[in-house]
């Protein structure tokens, strides 16, 4: 197996470079993350984030052969070699495959991703029909991996003003929740030429989402809701 | 003292899983000045991986009440659980699950709009009668749904987060008070002293002492090892839960919820073998029972596959609709990691290290308790623990599925409340002695040494194999004694290990080295505690002592790092308000 991996350590490197690595074909690695961990045994300085190794924590998002994805759930057999690994595009690189996600998390917070309901709290659960609950499927499962936002050209061009697909998916997750009462407030927040309307439906986000979620559609739904409000 | 940056808070929460976040929320909502430190961004904590659900006697699906839940938990624990803590947890369960719903957790719903509940192992109606459905679920992504909602509520409450900071050790003074902790900012490698009037350890489990585990790479028992180094013993570490159904060879979890929805296990000849081991509860017997049954089937040559080294869990009869609606995450994992779509075929599974029943001893207020002067129930001032790193003990010798997500919110919240109480009394921070901080920094500096030496990976790998071989599902005195010898020898090689990366910025090799030190301490605690307990109880199964022995062993183990000394303390058999459940033979 052959790899070409982006290397950059700000303490020693003036500029990033690509470094070649290889592993024997019978090394036992099935997923890309397995291979990265074996490479780290060869070269301890190779740095990347990882935790769950099963695609639920969102730690090991990176750019793999030009496409954003999670290393732990990508079978090596499905990838062309040499496998080119780069950090997620559009964000400052901390080191090697590790990017600074501050901007991404700020966008998430700006979407006010928490349930707002000002009624007195009932003794029991708030009722929600299975159909109402179905509206949250495809939204609540987001693992905040940033694959989508860092694949979005509108984010690259307006990183500080456009909220990006991941945060907008969260906006829709709460707008779509029958228990949430802050619809007007949430829509007011989004009625801005940049935060939402920089999305030009390029669909990169939906293409790359490793959880098969559809931020682009969620954004479309918010736009529809805003349009209906104007009428 | 070496000059390092310092920050001061009322309370410090170490760990941003469900336990830490629930505690932090209690504190933030009461406007205490609280900091949460986590070595990964909060939503990447391992609570995110919990699948099946959280127990509470809501009675939405089957008749239920907290007394039955309490009975099942005591029985599940093989009578080693403390009944005061168990009563407290089971009584609080319904209210806290409802509260989670109010926090926004997207629970699955029943037709009338109430929270969906599924059957799980070891659950009964009416003290051992019909199967109960007590596990509240958000499809099979309950942990994800909970962790994200708790993080979101903390954002709303403006909790202060130190994300990607690795805590090295607690800072204790000579009077035995905990004064906070020293962490390093992973991005810069800079140390930071965080001073607090109260410190809560919520660092999760230690599944990575084993080779095959359902746990994330970050579950390295850091908090448990910090407690040991601070002179606090660990309780009941011999009780490690092996989950019956990890994907064979890989360990990724196939939730008990799969059996709760009607899936069942079959051996090489297609037999539903659980009927032989647990005629009444069958596939939904307690986890220790099912894990032993699978292990036995394979040992006796009735396994599946070309090597007959696993068994199968059959799900396809549930139909596409149920699988897609109730088990979408399992389907995704099975397709990816086992290469089978459960809609079409059975999933290969085998018992896998899953959960630490033992941990840092606490009382039901979350206070860490250790025998210093007055006895084993004496609180360590300023120090709390909650969640999987703690042992309160509600799980005793065997945890019931769905009770850990409950444990973390119940005792996370309880610890938060108790901290609020003591904050009223502690007006000022006690001074931090320089020596205490220097000792921690020395631990960090040790890894600056260059030159030849063994690598961290080699030692970790050997440790994990040793634990699997010498302290697994079935244990004997002889095999464990040999294991101790080898593990002690391995631990002696640790000081000569060197790092091959000495940079400062985001040095993950350094973090892995520090984690290995923690793993080693926890592995030693586990095997020493296990070798000493000469009986079989819950998850601790000894071939040489096959029976439970209440006369001699109805007691908690306390393992001390110094001299590997073992103490014992009584089980708290008296509940808070109801009659005790005296030990009985445990059949399912
Ligand atoms: C695959 C899987 C499925 C499960 N399913 C269920 C289920 O359905 N129902 C159920 O009840 N239980 C389930 N469990 C068990 C349950 O999920 C865990 O026991 C529980 O989530 C632990 O929560 P916690 O808050 O104690 O720890 P964790 O969620 O593990 O969080 C630990 C935190 O501590 C931090 N930390 C650790 N060390 C350090 C350090 N040195 N410095 C700084 N921060 C540190 C981590 O970053 C993390 O934020 C499951 C477990 C697994 C592995
Ligand atoms: S659809 Fe919108 S959000 Fe998604 S990639 Fe395109 S521009 Fe970005
Ligand atoms: S929407 Fe998908 S790609 Fe985007 S952050 Fe969430 S899980 Fe990742
Ligand atoms: S390691 Fe958690 S998503 Fe890949």
Strands, helices and their partners?
The complex is a heterodimer of chains A (231) and B (588).
Chain A: E1 2-7, E2 17-22, H1 32-42, E3 61-64, E4 67-70, E5 83-86, E6 93-95, E7 98-99, H2 102-110, H3 130-134, H4 153-157, H5 164-175, H6 183-190, H7 204-208, H8 215-230
Parallel strand pairs in A: 1-5
Antiparallel strand pairs in A: 1-2, 3-4, 3-5, 6-7
Helix pairs in contact in A: 2-5, 5-8
Chain B: E1 5-14, H1 18-29, E2 34-38, E3 54-55, H2 66-76, H3 83-102, E4 117-124, E5 131-136, H4 142-156, E6 160-163, E7 165-172, E8 178-185, E9 191-201, H5 222-229, E10 234-235, E11 240-247, H6 257-260, E12 264-266, H7 274-277, H8 287-299, E13 311-314, H9 320-326, H10 328-338, E14 347-356, E15 360-361, E16 367-369, E17 379-385, E18 390-391, H11 403-425, H12 434-445, H13 456-470, E19 474-475, H14 477-493, H15 508-532, E20 541-542, H16 550-553, E21 555-559, E22 566-570
Parallel strand pairs in B: 1-2, 1-9, 2-6, 9-17, 15-18, 19-20
Antiparallel strand pairs in B: 3-5, 4-5, 7-8, 8-9, 10-21, 11-14, 12-13, 13-14, 16-17, 21-22
Helix pairs in contact in B: 1-4, 1-11, 2-3, 3-11, 5-15, 13-14, 13-15, 14-15
Residues 14-20, 37-40, 45-47, 49-54, 142-143, 166-167, 202-205, 214-215, 218-219, 222-223, 253, 255, 355, 387-389, 401-405, 408 of chain B line the site of flavin-adenine dinucleotide (FAD).
Question: What does this protein look like?
Answer:
The complex is a heterodimer of chains A (231) and B (588). Chain A is of the alpha+beta class and 231 residues long. Helices cover 31% and strands 13% of the residues of chain A. Chain A contains eight helices and seven strands; from the N terminus they run E-E-H-E-E-E-E-E-H-H-H-H-H-H-H. In chain A, the strands form two sheets. Chain A has a five-stranded mixed sheet, with no helix packed on it. A two-stranded antiparallel sheet of chain A has the order 6-7. In chain A, strand 3 and strand 4 form a beta hairpin. In chain A, helix 2 runs parallel beside helix 5 and helix 5 crosses helix 8. Chain B has 588 residues and is an alpha/beta fold. The longest helix of chain B is centred in the C-terminal third of the chain and has 25 residues, at 508-532. Chain B is globular. Chains A and B meet through helix 3 of A and helix 3, helix 4 and helix 10 of B. One iron/sulfur cluster (SF4) is lined by residues 142-148, 165-166, 169, 209, 211, 213, 215 of chain A. FE2/S2 (inorganic) cluster (FES) is lined by residues 50-53, 55-60, 70, 72 of chain A.
């Amino acid at each position: 197996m052959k790899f070409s991996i982006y290397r950059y350590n700000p303490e020693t490197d003036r500029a990033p470079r690509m470094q070649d690595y290889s592993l024997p074909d019978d090394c036992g690695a099935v997923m890309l993350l397995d291979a990265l961990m074996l490479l780290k045994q060869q070269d301890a300085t190779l740095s990347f984030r990882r935790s769950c190794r099963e695609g639920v924590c969102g730690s090991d998002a990176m750019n793999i052969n030009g496409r954003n994805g999670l290393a732990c759930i990508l079978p090596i057999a499905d990838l062309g070699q040499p496998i080119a690994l780069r950090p997620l595009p559009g964000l400052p690189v901390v080191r090697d495959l590790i990017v600074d996600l501050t901007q991404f998390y700020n966008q998430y917070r700006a979407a006010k991703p928490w349930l707002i309901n000002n009624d007195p709290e009932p003794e029991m659960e708030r009722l929600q029909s299975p159909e109402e609950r179905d509206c949250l499927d495809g939204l609540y499962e987001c693992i905040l991996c940033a694959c989508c936002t860092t694949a979005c050209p509108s984010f690259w061009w307006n990183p500080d003003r456009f909220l990006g697909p991941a945060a907008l998916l969260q906006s829709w997750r709460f707008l779509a929740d029958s228990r949430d009462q802050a619809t007007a407030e949430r829509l007011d927040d989004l009625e801005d030429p940049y935060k939402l309307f920089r999305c030009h439906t390029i669909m990169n986000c939906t293409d790359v989402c490793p959880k098969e979620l559809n931020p682009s559609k969620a954004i479309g739904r918010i736009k529809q809701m805003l349009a209906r409000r104007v009428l | 003292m070496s000059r390092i940056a310092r920050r001061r808070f009322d309370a410090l929460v170490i760990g941003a899983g469900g336990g830490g976040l629930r505690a932090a929320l209690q504190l933030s909502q009461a406007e205490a000045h609280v900091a949460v430190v986590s070595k990964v961004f909060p939503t990447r904590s391992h609570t995110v991986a919990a699948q099946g659900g959280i127990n509470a006697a809501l009675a939405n699906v089957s008749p239920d009440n907290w007394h039955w839940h309490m009975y099942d938990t005591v029985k599940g624990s093989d009578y080693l659980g403390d009944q005061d803590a168990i009563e407290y947890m089971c009584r609080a369960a319904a209210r806290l699950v409802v509260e989670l719903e109010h926090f926004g957790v997207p629970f699955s719903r029943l037709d009338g709009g109430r929270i969906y509940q599924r059957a799980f192992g070891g659950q009964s109606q009416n003290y051992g009668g019909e199967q109960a459905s007590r596990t509240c679920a958000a499809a099979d992504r309950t942990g994800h749904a909970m962790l994200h909602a708790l993080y979101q509520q903390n954002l709303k409450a403006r909790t202060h987060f130190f994300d990607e900071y690795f805590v090295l050790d607690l800072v204790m003074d000579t009077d035995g008070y905990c004064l906070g902790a020293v962490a390093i900012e992973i991005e810069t490698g800079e140390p930071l002293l965080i001073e607090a009037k109260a410190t809560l350890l919520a660092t999760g489990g230690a599944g990575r002492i084993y080779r095959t585990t359902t746990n994330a790479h970050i579950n390295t028992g850091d908090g448990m090892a910090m407690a040991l180094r601070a002179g606090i013993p660990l309780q009941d570490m011999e009780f490690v839960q092996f989950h019956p159904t990890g994907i064979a060879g890989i360990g990724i979890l196939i939730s008990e919820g799969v059996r709760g929805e009607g899936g069942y296990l079959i051996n090489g000849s297609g037999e539903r073998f659980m009927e032989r081991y647990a005629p009444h509860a069958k596939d939904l017997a307690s986890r220790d029972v099912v894990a032993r049954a699978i292990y036995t089937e394979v040992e006796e040559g009735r396994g599946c596959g070309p090597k007959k080294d696993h068994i199968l869990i059959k799900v396809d009869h549930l139909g596409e609709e149920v699988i897609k609606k109730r088990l979408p995450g399992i389907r995704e994992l099975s397709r990816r990691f086992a290469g089978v779509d459960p809609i079409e075929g059975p999933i290969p599974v085998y018992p896998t290290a899953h959960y630490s029943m033992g941990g840092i001893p606490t009382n039901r207020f979350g206070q860490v308790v250790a025998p210093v002067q007055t006895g084993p129930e004496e609180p360590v001032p300023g120090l709390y623990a909650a969640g999987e790193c703690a042992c309160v003990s509600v799980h005793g010798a065997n945890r019931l599925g769905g009770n850990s997500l409950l444990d973390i919110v119940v005792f996370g919240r309880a610890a938060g409340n108790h901290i609020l109480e003591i904050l009223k009394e502690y007006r000022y921070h006690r001074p931090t002695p320089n020596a205490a901080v220097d000792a921690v920094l020395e631990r960090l500096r040790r890894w600056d040494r260059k030159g030849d030496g063994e690598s961290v990976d080699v030692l970790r790998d050997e440790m994990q194999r040793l634990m699997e071989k010498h302290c697994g599902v079935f244990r004997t005195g002889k095999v464990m004694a040999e294991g101790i010898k080898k593990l002690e020898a391995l631990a002696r090689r640790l000081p000569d290990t060197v790092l091959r990366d000495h940079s400062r910025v985001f040095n993950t090799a350094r973090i892995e080295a520090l984690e290995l030190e923690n793993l080693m301490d926890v592995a030693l605690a586990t095997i020493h505690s296990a070798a000493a307990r000469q009986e079989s109880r819950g998850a601790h199964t000894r071939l040489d002592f096959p029976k439970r022995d209440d006369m001699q062993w109805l007691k908690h183990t306390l393992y001390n790092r110094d001299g590997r000394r073992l103490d014992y303390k009584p089980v708290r058999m008296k509940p808070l308000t109801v009659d005790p459940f005296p030990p009985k033979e445990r059949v399912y």
